[in-house]
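Narrative progress, year one. The postdoctoral researcher (J.K.) led the effort to move from monomer predictions toward full complexes, under supervision of the PI. The following entry was the first complex the group processed end to end, covering 824 residues in total.
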Amino acid sequence: MLNRKITNHTLDNGLEIITEKMDAVRSAAIALSIPAGGCYEPSGKNGIASLLSDLMLRGAGDYDSRALSVAFDNLGVQYHLSPGWHQLTFSAATLADRLPEVLKLVSDVFLRPHLEQKSFEMCKVGREQTLRSIEDEPRQKLMIELRRRTYSPPWNRPSEGSLQDLPEISLQDVRSHFEQCSVPSGAILGIAGDIDAGQIVSHCEDLFKDWDGEAPRLSRGTEPKPDSNHIEHDSTQTQIGIAYRAVPYRDPDYYRAWTAVNILSGGMSSRLFTKVREERGLCYAIGASLNTLKDEARILCYAGTTNDRAQETLEVTIDELKNIDQGVTESELQRCQVRAKSALIMQEESTMARASSLVRNWFHLGRIRTLQEVREQIESVRAEDVLAYARQYPANNLNVLTIGPQPLQVEESA
Amino acid sequence: MKFEQDRLANGLNIVAELNSKVHSVAFGFFVRTGSRDETDQLSGVSHFLEHMVFKGTDKYSAEDVNRIFDEVGAHYNASTSEEVTLFYAAVLPEYLPVAFEMFSSILYPSLRDDDFKMEKQVILEEIGMYDDMPSFTAYEKLMQVHFAGHPLSRSILGTVESITALKAEQMRAYHESHYLAGNMTLVVAGNVDWSTVVDLSNRYCSHWPAGETARDTSEAHPTGGTLVLPKQGVIQEHIAQMSPAPPSASPLRFAADVLTTIVGDDSNSRLYWELVASGRAEAAELSYNDYDGSSGYMTYLTCNPEDVKENLDAISRIYEDINKNGVTAQELEQTKNKIASRIVLRSERPMGRLSALGNNWIYRREYRSVQDDLDTLQSMTLQDIDDLLQQYPLVQLSTVAIGPLESLPE
């Protein structure tokens, strides 16, 4: 059975190690998360976490920047280090027999990064380039700015950083962020693939036993929150973003919320796709997803449409989001469940997906929800549960944001 | 892992790589038709037709199609390129028959007038969406400039004008002449028996019209050109460049893959260290884009407009050095490791095998296992890279720039 293949182990310093043995794969993947995301940045210095994730890979242990990169390539590792709202996460996959050597490199990156001035300057210029490029991608900018408006500081900070704060950040800021946040307490290491759990855990114990430090404190988040609902942009399409409250992953109602969102936007027979795209031809891209932090969550909805059809698109979309409290059909429920079953089983073919899922589960729940358990939870959701949920968390008090040449009319009742 | 292959009487090619150890099965219909097979009047029809397929048949309405695929939890979609329209799905093995029947039915859609009219709006929205994405526009315009006068220059999406003017009967005629069994390859990968594949294809595909359409695959002889498109509201300069590379059937294609990874991968490559790691550019990459008969090395650069000249000069110096001195043995070894690992990781999922299996068959009528690819990679030498560079050196022949600049600095 699945859950017998999963192990967890807490080191004395607090690092959680979760492993999953997978069949029929030659690879292994890891995800290592530390409490170093945007919510730990001081106010006015958004971007420290993203700069740290750029800088940690620019030399560590005995390796300078280039040697580290070469070492990862020689081991055939596909990897990235990405800042999130809570955590900063390193993800990697390679052939399973190379995993011990990869973990050694990873311990250098997390325990002994160089964090040098020269590399810092290059990372900062590079980060500015990345942020400028986001300005050229209205859809990506929309979601960043929508989050900024729907959550409160420190949770609304873009994990990519911001052009406004970037000049204020010094190497010292990044170093102190590292010192406070690269700690085993609150760190989670997920390992999945063709592995021997006992051997790999004991190897990790050796590598990480000298890591120490207490979990960092959250930033107070005193920066002002933007409230405009339109950003002017000279574009062919208007980007529409809508956000409203939902329940987070650890809430007992999570799978009700998940089902509601999937009825709205999971697959091409879902309501938004059918009503807005298929029946009216208003847009090419439309969708909604459940964005979950640890203690709160939102449904984030997106549509992109040419400017003269944007008002109609907004209205039809909001109507659909609201209408879910009028009832869902058995057939909609059934489709959600089969789609979930397929997705979960196919997840077992990807070591990277499994490693990330182990870390995500541990972060949100402090335990592992097995794929079997997820499936049972989803299959236990009834139509009346979805309705009850939709009435408790209706599509009201919407945050609406548009990017395009003209603002749209948003009704008061929204 | 077992390979099987067959061809139905009507010409449909079937290739399958069977693997009972995985959980899912993926399949795809590769239709040999794309923008290069169109005319000015029909510009964008292949892609528009890809959308119309999902509008269903007399038996299945558009709503049925979407619903039934979701009922079996299929991960499915379609794509259109210059030369292939691909319809694919990954499903759990027990749902293969339903998903297979659906795709094989809708490949011969009703193409109803009202659906056509509605979907035209969606296509125009898709054109609008890409119009706001400078990286996409740069690619499309680069193909127009680089392959000027050659079929590969044609836009996949078409234009607002060509799509607006297109009539349903033109699409029906295009469908009738291009969706012939001889133009199609069915590719299956994953957990399924060969006998099931044979049964399903006999049952649902054997009545398809036979035939094959000719395609002009003569090699392009690009003379280069530069196009600068100033664009309001864009703050970075997005530059794409192209020069000739080995066509998709050439044995040099493996070396081209390795070379472009050494020079222009998104991490740990020559371009990366010179331009991206130093913060001089947001992106600086080189890729090998292979097409039927003519391919291209594509350079892609995004940076501050004021740094464009310096960065393009730096890229020229790197290319000159590579053309003159080749790559190092160390670079070759590291890159082999990097690519080998990518091949293995990608291949662990049936969906990850689909495009490799399909492309090998439609372009070269060959089957290559993962091990074949790894062996070829391991046997590559510096001499192979030099041979490639002799015939296809790295140059910046055609250029398109989109962003704040009115013209490119000399």
